[in-house]
Amino acid sequence: MWSGTIWISSRRSGSDAVFNLRARVISPGLMATTTRRGAMPELGAAMRTQADALRRLAPPARLGDPESVHDMRVATRRLRSMLRATRRMLDPDWVLFVRGELAWVGDLLGAVRELDVLGATLSEDASMLSGGDAVVAPGLLQPLGVERAAAFGQMAEGLESTRFERLVVTLESASAEPPWNGREQRVERVAAKEFRRLRKRARLNPEASNAALHKGRIRVKRARYAAELAVDARGKRAAKFISAAKNLQDLLGEHQDAVIARRRLRDLSLASKRPDTSLAAGRLIERQEQRMHDARKRLPASWKRLEKRGRRAW
């Protein structure tokens, strides 16, 4: 007797993909071992939860619901991080394919989500301007609406495609029987490893460059999502670490949003055909720089709290 995990591999051609079915044979004995001791039950449950979220949220996202777009993007990021953290236990070709497809979906969702956040932030800031700046600000920001409409069209098309449906089916199938390669590792060790990487590689201090803080945020998310696999194993300690990681992630997200907004405002000002928009853009840029400053000021305490929670958890 044998147990086979059917998964989908792809060879991209044009805007879609050519799919082939491939079976991976896993002996019942190996599957029993990983169910008893390894990370497969936790990973399988996590994949199922996120696959369900992708399937459930796709229809409202296609209709333009901002929260559904956001939650779908989070689901793709969570899946990519979890598969990265557990990749040594999984079929490498399968991981490469699925993470690539998740990146494709995440890029479609991210283009819309980032413009939603950017547009909302800058519109609110612009509403606080006065005089001539208040008059010209809407025209300065108008290209963002055009860009968002184009990004939304591409996202909606992608979420309606056979390619997206096959990705969700692949995740649903793998959640019941992950494509294990014969190795195993406890979820606590997976989470601890990601935390050690975070402490070693992240440059999270007020003097760090914008790029370093952005990379640090990505590493915080990886550590957080790996920890989510180990909540049942580590209980409150893991939960407190996850909470601290989310707070730091949000703080770094505020900083990155301001960095992006400042850059886009400069681009919009240069592209504008009205010379009087430069003053309005300058005032809006000052707001972004203040947000960056405030986030950096709060960074040391948030990072210290995360380190403390991480040492206790792992």
Note down, in words, how this protein is organized:
It is a single chain. 78% of the residues lie in helices and 7% in strands. With 314 residues, it is mainly alpha-helical. The chain has a domain of 129 residues. Strands 1-2 form a two-stranded antiparallel sheet. A hairpin with a 2-residue loop joins strand 1 and strand 2. Helix 10 runs antiparallel to helix 11. The protein is flat and about 65 Å long. The protein starts with a strand and ends with a helix. The N terminus is likely disordered.
Set down the secondary structure blueprint.
Blueprint: E1 3-13, E2 16-26, H1 28-37, H2 40-62, H3 66-85, H4 92-127, H5 131-159, H6 162-176, H7 187-201, H8 210-229, H9 231-234, H10 236-271, H11 277-313
Antiparallel strand pairs: 1-2
Helix pairs in contact: 2-3, 2-5, 2-6, 3-4, 3-8, 4-5, 4-6, 5-11, 7-8, 8-10, 10-11
Question: What's the quick description here?
Answer:
The chain has 314 residues and is mainly alpha-helical. The protein has helices at residues 28-37, 40-62, 66-85, 92-127, 131-159, 162-176, 187-201, 210-229, 231-234, 236-271, 277-313; strands at 3-13, 16-26. Helix 2 (40-62) packs across helix 5 (131-159), helix 3 packs across helix 8 (210-229) and helix 4 (92-127) runs antiparallel to helix 5 (131-159).
The beta-strand count equals: 2
Helix and strand sequence: EEHHHHHHHHHHH
Using the alpha-carbon principal axes, give the shape: flat
Integer average pLDDT: 87
How far the N terminus sits from the C terminus, by CA atoms, comes to: 39 Å
What share of residues are in beta strands?
5-15%
Question: Stretches where pLDDT falls below 50 for ≥5 residues?
Answer: 1-37
What about the largest sheet?
2 strands, antiparallel
The DSSP helix count reads: 11
Structural class: mainly alpha
- Order of the strands making up the biggest sheet: 1-2
Radius of gyration: 22 Å
The amount of helix comes to: over 70%
